[in-house]
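Pilot study result, target chain (388 residues):
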Amino acid sequence: MTIVNYVGGNVYVTNEGFKSQTVSVDTVSGQVVETVREADQTVDVQGKYLVPGLVNAHTHIVMAADGRERAGQDVTLDTLVALQNLQDAIASGVTTIRDAGSTDNIDLKLASKIRQQRLQLPDIIGSGAALTMTGGHGSKIGMEVDGVDEVRKAARWNLKHGAQTIKLMATGGVTLDGEQPTDEQLSLEEMTAAVLEAHHKGKPAMPHAQGTQGIKNAILAGVDSVEHAVYLDDETIQMLLDTNTAIVPTMAAPWQMLQHKDDIPAYMYDKASALWEAHQQSIRDAAAAGVNVVMGTDAGTSYNDFKSGPGVEIRLLASVGMTPEQVLLASTVRGAELLGIADRVGELVPGKDADMLILDCDPLQYLAVLTDAPRVIKRGQVVTGSLN
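Predicted structure:
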């Protein structure tokens, strides 16, 4: 056991704010431990602010955010793209991601290696291939399934191969030509079959769901979160509250598309533009009503990269009325809870992984500091920045 004490800093405590206290880290186990008076090393973090590493609850590691659709064509290239994306993610302070659709189970294979070998990359909660209807959203890299039996078998197959969540396509979206975000895709019955399989194994289920009826179908199917949640009406918001279903807005995805009109297909820009105001209003209304909002960026979509995306999403969450502390919680412990890993990440308390950011100023006053070149600690080891 090698203990490092971080002393004199302001440590974020969930729902209590910042407190001046010591964080003791065992660099061998990579966990926070009960405070040790005499450590092997002492790091003075006087005047600094210590927060848990960020959780990005919606990513696509095999997709390069350069506007070119290459995922699924070459497994070696996809793996290289994934590794670069993971390096960019941790450089922005993200120490855990949930991957929402990969190729060749790259997310599941890397997740296992990163955890087993204690690599200094974000931990991955992977879904494997997303389940979509034939010709549906994400069909180029997803698993096409039709009917309850095919969906059930596909969910079981993903779980067999290590999926920690099941991804479903409840509606159409922006990135595929010939469909609309309001299109219903997988049916209530199909999604229910997949959700039951996930829950039998103690795993959550997450749907891509943008249109109102598709969102309602997903909630009725028993999903644990709704991804994107573009068109929410009052009834849908009440359903989210009644079922304690979280939303992962991923507003960074359409926002980035709107900044790159000349770089993306016209159909994509037109759809992103058409839904943008409604998307913001939906998240504003849901957050005000008390819906559990979790930070996720949809990283890998057009010009929505792993390094800048979290900062954009954090700013957008604040812009729709969430307080700085709500945004911080959405980006840490709430994400850990949704991913089913709150027993090991999301808070700087004994027994959990020593994934933390050391910041120069109070993020509750300056949210941007969360992703603005933070000093990143992953499992007790310094990944970026300096402790001096």
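One observation from the pilot: The chain has two domains: 3-51+347-384, 54-339. A full batch analysis is planned for the follow-on phase.
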